[in-house]
Amino acid sequence: MAFLKKDQQDRAYYAFKEGLRIDPENSELWFQTGIVLAKQERHRDAIKMYRNALKYDPDNLNAQLRLGMSMHEVGMYKEAIPVLSHLIERESENEQAWMYRGACHLALGKFREALSDFETAIDWGSEQTEVWVLKGYCHVQIGEFQEALDAYSFAVEINPDDPVAFFGLANALVHLDERDQAIEELRKAVKIDPEYADAWRMLADLFADSGEIAQASNAYEQVLKLEPWDLDTRYSYSILKAELSDDKAAVTDILNQIINEGQESVTFYNNHGLTLMHLKKYESALQAFNRALQLGPDNPSVWHNHGAALYKLKWLKDAMKSFQHSLKLNPKNVNAWIGIGMVATAQYEFSRAAAAYTHATELCPRKVNVWIMLGDTQTERSMFQDAVAAYEKALELEPDNPTAWNQRGLALRLMDSHPAALESFEHAGETKNARPESWINHAITSFELGEYDQSVNSFERACKFGPIPVDSWLIYLNALAYEHENMKVIKGAERFIELFGPDAEVLFLLGVAQYELKQYEAALHHFRETIKLDKDHNDSLFWAGLTLLELFQFPEAITCFEQVEDNHPDDYQAWYYHGKALVSRGELQKAEFILKHSIQIYDQSYEAWYLLADVQSSRKAYSDALQSIGKALELVPSSNSALILKATIQVALGSFRGACQTYALISEPDASDPAVLIGYARALYHTGSFREAYARVTRLLVNDEKNPDLWHLRAEIERAQGLFDEAAHALTQACKYAPNNKKLQSLQGIVLYEAGKYPEAISVLEKVLEVDSQNGELWKRKGAAHEALLQYELASAAYLKASEFLHDDPDLIRRLGVSLYRSGKCDLSIQKLDQYLEVVPDDPDIWEMKGRALYNMGEYLLASNALSQAALYHPDDTNLLFRYTQSLVKSGELLSAIPTLDQILERDPDNADAWKLKAEIEQALGRSDEAAHAVEEALRQIPDDPGLMLARVKTLYESDNYPESLDMVRRVIDKAPDNSEAWSLYAELLWMTADHNAAAAAYERILAHDDTNARAWFLKGDSLQNAGRFEEAAIAHERAFSLGGDPSVGLMLSKKMRYLQQRKT
C-alpha cells in the first residue's frame, strides 16, 4: 500500500503479486493489483484482477465498480452493463456506477437508457461536469435540444473552464437556431482551449452561414493550422474563396495545397472544375476539365474528373471512355475503377461493374461505399453470397452504415436466410440515419417467416417515417389478419378503400376479420363483394362456406365447398369442411368418404383425423377409429378430447391397459374419470409422487406379484427416495421373474452398489459383464465396488477395462490413477494422474497423490513440484507442507526447504519431525548453532530418539564439548547398540579425551565390521601407542599406511592437542 500511495506503481504491482503468491485468495490484494494496473492503463489485465477479487469476495463492491469502469475503458460496453447493473442492485446510491453504465449505453447508441442512468447519477449527488455533458449529448441525439441546452448550461456552471461543455452548449443552440449565442459560446471554448479544432470548425461554419467572410476565413485557417491534413476543411475553405472572393490567385494557391501541386494551369482548371462539380454545375465543370486536358492530357486525375462530369450528365459512353483513359495512365486509380463500375451498372452490364468494383476494393479496401456498390452489383447478378460478403466488409469498416445493413438483409432474404436478414434490417433501422425502407423490408421478411406480430410492429415503425407503398399495405393487412388483430384489419381496410378504392384482396381480408368477430352477415356480404370483383377468388368462396356453416345454412355451405373443390381439387380444407357439413346433416357414410379424401390429400390435419375417428366410432368401426385417433394424437398428443375418444374406443375393443395409459395422459378436469386411475400409478411415479405411486404399485403387486415390470417400477420409486436396500430387493424379485433381462440385472448391480452391498454388486455385475463385456459404465461401477472394499488391484483392473470404452472420462481417469497408486503401482499411476490434471488442474488431492508417488519412486524434484501445487490450494495443511519440505531436502534444495519448514514450526512449534528435519538441513549446511537449536527442540519433544540424540552428539562434538557429547553417545549406544555411526563418534571421543585403552577397544569393534577403514586403524594405533602397547600399535599403523592413510588425521591430532592442553591448564 505504501508503494501505491507514493505512486510507485511497478513496485506496488510486484509487492501485491508477491502477496498473492502467499495468499492467493485475498480479495483485497487482487483488487489493489487491479487498481495499479488500471493506473498504468493496463485495463484488460486489471479486469482479470477485479474478477479474481470478486471470485474470493463477491461482496467487494469497489471491485465490482472498478471492473465495470475498466470494461468501459477497453470498449467492452455490453459486458460492462450487467456488471454495473449488479452493483446498482446492491448499492443503488453509487453515482459512479450509474454514470459509467450510462456511458456504456451511450457508446452502444442506447440514448434513452443512457439518459435514465445519467439522471439517476445526478439524483444520487454526482456533481461531475462529465455527467452533465454526457446527458446533454444524449438529449441532442434524441432531438431534445432544449433539455440538452439545460444540461450543458449546468455543466458550464459547474466548471466554467471546460471547453467541451461550451462546445456542447453551442451545438444545442445551433439546433435551436440561436446561432449568435452559439458563436459566443464557441468563442469561450477556443479561448479556454485555442487548439480545439472542432470548435474552430463549427465557428467557421457559423460565420460563413452568416456572411462574415473574414472571420470565417480566419477560423478555417485556425483549423488548418491544427489539422493541416483535413482535406474537407481545405476544400470548404477553397469553396468559400471561390464564391465570395475576387482574388483568383489566392484561390488557386489554396486549391494547389489541397492536391499535390502539378503544372499550375492544369491544377487550376482541374480544381476549378471540382469546385463547379461541388456546386452541381456539371456542364461548366466539364468545360473546365476539357481545358485542363488541353493543357495536360496525361493527367489521370483530370480524366477521372472529366468522366465523373460526363456521368452526372448521363453521357455514359463518353464517361466510360474517360474513365478507361484515366486507367490507361494510372491503372491504380481507384476512383476511375469506381467510375467504370457506376457507368457499367447504369448500362446494366453487371458483370463488368462487379469486375470494376472488385479492382477498386483491391486497390483501396477501406472505401465503404465501394463495397456496398460491389454488393449491389453481385445482388443484381444473383450472386447473393458474394454480395453478403461485400456488405459485411463494408460493415467491418463502418459498423453503423444503414445502407450496408439494409442491402445485406435483402441479399440474405434472397438466399432464404430470413433470420439473418431480420437481424440485418434491425441493425439498419436502429442506426442514426435509418430510413423507412429498412423497417418495411424487416416487415416483409417477418411476414415471409410467418412472424406476423413482428411484421405488424415493423410496418408500424416504418409508418412513423411517412406513408408506405400500396403493395406494402396489402402485406400489412395480411399480417394483421394472421395476428387476428381484427379491429385493426377493419380500420386499415376501410382506410385503404378510402385512399385507393375497392380491392378484392382487401375486401376479402375485411370479411375474414368480421367472420372472426362473429359478424357473420357482414362477413358474408364482403366475401360476395370480393367474388363480384374476382369470380375466381377461391379463398372468398371457402370463407363464404365457413360463414354459411356458422349460419347453419348447410346446403349453401356445401355448394361453396364443392365450387372450391372443382377449382382446386387438392384443397384438403375444403374437403374437410365439406365433410363437417355432411356430419351436421347426419350423412355419416358420405362424410367418412369425404374426410378420407381430405386426409389422402393432406394427412397432417388433426381436425380431419379426429372427425374421421368420431364418425367411424359412431358407425361402430372401432379398429379403424383407433387407427384414426392414433394419427390425431401423433399430431396433437395433449388433446384431452382426442385422448378421451381414444380411451372410449379402446374400452369398446377390450384394450384396458391401453385405455389406462391413455387416461393417465388426460389433464384435469377429465383426469378424474375412474377409468383413468387404473393406469395412473406409473404416471404418478414419473411426476415424482412416490408415496402414492408406491401404494398403487404395491396394491397392483398383490394381484400380480410375478410382474417384473411392476417390481422394476417399485424399485425405481424406492431408489428415487434413497431406499437402496429396498430397491435392491425389488430388483432381485424383478430379475427372478425376468432372468434373461440383462438391463434389469445391470440396474440391480448398480443399486446393490448404492446400497453398500459391494460383494453382491460385484457378483451381479460380473455376470452381466460376461454377456455385455463392452459396457464401460458397468466396468467402472465394478471398479468402484472393489475400491470401496479396498481391493485396489482389482479396482484398477476394472477401471482399466472401463477406459477401453469410456474415453475422456475425467472421473474414470482419476479413479484409475488413485487405485493404481494405492496398489503400489506408482509409475503407472503418475501417467493417469497427469492425464487427469490436464483436464482438472485444480484438484489438490491429486497433486498431493502425484507428489507422493514421485517421492516413492525417488523423483524428489518432480515430487516437490507436484506437492507445491497441492500446497497452493491447502496452504494451511502442515502435513502437506512437511511432505513438500522432505521432497525439497531429498532433491538437494536445502535452502528452499527452510522457509516452508519455518512456516510449519511457526504454526506447530511442538512438531518434533519438523525440528528433526531442520536439524539435518542445518547440519548439512554447516550451520552448527542452528542445528544444535533444532536438535534441542526436537529432543524436548522426543528425548529418547536415537537419531536426534546422535545429531545432538554431532553438534556437541563440533563445538568441542567432548565430555557432554561422550555422555550422550553412550546413551545412544545403549538404545541402538548396532549403530555404526554412534560407535565411530564414541571411539573418536574416547581418543580425543585420551582414554586410550577404551578407544582402542572401540576401534577394535569398528574394524571388526570394516577392515578397510584407514582412519580407524590409524587412531587405534595412536591409542595403543599412547597406552604403551607398542607392538600392537605398530601393527595398526602399518595397516593404516597400507590402506593409504587418511589426510584428516592431522587436523584431528591438532584438535586433540589443543583440547588436552586446555584441559591441563
UniProtKB/TrEMBL annotation:
Annotated keywords: Repeat, TPR repeat
An individual GO BP term = receptor-mediated virion attachment to host cell
UniProt-recorded name of the protein: Tetratricopeptide repeat protein
InterPro entries in the record: TPR_rpt (IPR019734), Ycf3 (IPR050498)
Per the UniProt entry, what species is this protein from, by scientific name? Methanospirillum hungatei
The TPR repeat units are at: 27-60, 95-128, 129-162, 163-196, 197-230, 266-299, 300-333, 334-367, 368-401, 436-469, 504-537, 606-639, 742-775
